[in-house]
Amino acid sequence: MENQGKTSTSPGWLEARLSAPAPQSEAAADFLTSLTGHGVQILDELAPTGPVTVVAFFEAGAELPAQKAQLEGYARSLAAEAGEGAVELTFSDLAAEDWAGAWKAYFHPRLVSRRLIVAPPWEKASPEPGQMVIVIDPGQAFGTGQHQSTQLVLRRIERLAERGRLPARVLDVGCGSGILGLATLLFGAQQVTGIDIDPEAVAATQANAKRNGLERGLTASMTPLDELSETYPLVLANLIARELIALAQPLAQRLSPGGELVISGILIDQIGQMSEVFAAQGLKVVEQDSLAEWAALVLA
User: Fold this and answer.
1) Cα 165–Cα 208–Cα 262 angle in degrees, nearest 5
2) 63 and 140 in one domain?
3) CATH number of the domain residue 86 falls in
4) What gap in Å lies between CA 300 and CA 278, rounded to an integer?
5) Which of 76, 177, 200, 225 fits as disulfide partner to 138, beta carbons 3.0 to 4.6 Å?
6) Successive 10-residue mean pLDDT values, the chain, 300 residues
7) In terms of C-beta distances under 8 Å and separation of at least 24 residues, what long-range contacts does 188-193 make, across chains too?
8) What is the DSSP string of 251-295?
9) Does residue 203 form part of some domain?
10) Cα(274)–Cα(277) distance, integer angstroms
11) What is the per-residue pLDDT for 96?
């Protein structure tokens, strides 16, 4: 395991790259998402062999030294598990003006479900007949469609639409870039309510709705989940495990009778724990799906 740094005259962000065998890299992606509060990029995830690299960005500030120390400690624990030389951690300082270009290098048009392509505004997609395109600029919010946890929810949305079961009204908890809510509109929903605790996520959701001509069907705000008064026939929550646990009760309360709650952002080995948490709220798992080490549960 190696730690390297490059000095920048005006660092605004720190790029961290953690390379590890696939099983450890999946856990690392979850850890880095939680630690940074931003999405991560996963490189070489489809390679049949070899390490997988997780790229994350830390904003310079008072918390950075502690965050960096946490990551270094986590990398050491992964290295002890994976074996000598199997885990590598590197750091690079980025000037503030270089931040946007750094992560954009990894975001290209991608087919994320059978019919849906997610593309950035700076690179045009070429859909096949029957495919649809949603254009997403996440800014500093999570949600480019590249991560398996997002793809799992998008696949569920598509299946609901194909079965004629996608409801008119949807709640997207932790809307991030707005990708999930916008996908439901693209597949036929009429009204989406998106909420997030991050003002940059709310702004990104609103901007992406306008970018895709879907602003009339979507509202986004920082309204706390437990302050919403309506219930919804479909509730989406692509969050990390500890957030899902903390929000289990209000998530269940926002679900209309006969509706379904789709949760994602959990690892396969957390399925049992999540099932128990939501069973205590009167919900049971009616369907589950997985990609790599990530899982999504449909609860009703």
Assistant:
1) 35
2) no
3) 3.30.70.260
4) 10
5) 177
6) 33 83 81 76 65 85 87 91 88 68 73 94 93 86 78 96 97 95 98 94 95 97 97 96 94 98 92 97 97 91
7) 188/161, 189/217, 189/234, 190/217, 191/217, 191/218, 191/219, 192/217, 192/218, 192/219, 193/169, 193/218, 193/219, 193/220, 193/228, 193/230, 193/232
8) HHHTEEEEEEEEEEEEEGGGHHHHHHHHHTTT--EEEEEEETTEE
9) yes
10) 5
11) 57
DSSP output for 106-155 = T---EE-SSSEEEE-TTS---PPTT-EEEE---TTSS--S-SHHHHHHHH
Residue type, 44: D
Are residues 212 and 69 part of one domain? no
Pairing, β 52-59 against β 41-43: antiparallel
> CA 65, CA 238: separation in Å to the nearest integer?
28
Per-residue model confidence (pLDDT) at position 148:
83
Tokens of 221: 């705000």
Q: Are residues 93 and 121 in the same domain?
A: no
Phi-psi region of 238 (alpha: psi -120 to 50; beta: other; left: phi over 0): beta
pLDDT of residue 68: 92
* Angle CA 56–58–59, to nearest 5: 145
180 and 254 fall within a common domain = yes
* pLDDT at residue number 111: 93
SS3 62: coil
For residue 75, give every residue at least 6 positions away whose Cβ sits within 8 Å of its Cβ, in sequence order, or none.
1, 18, 87, 89
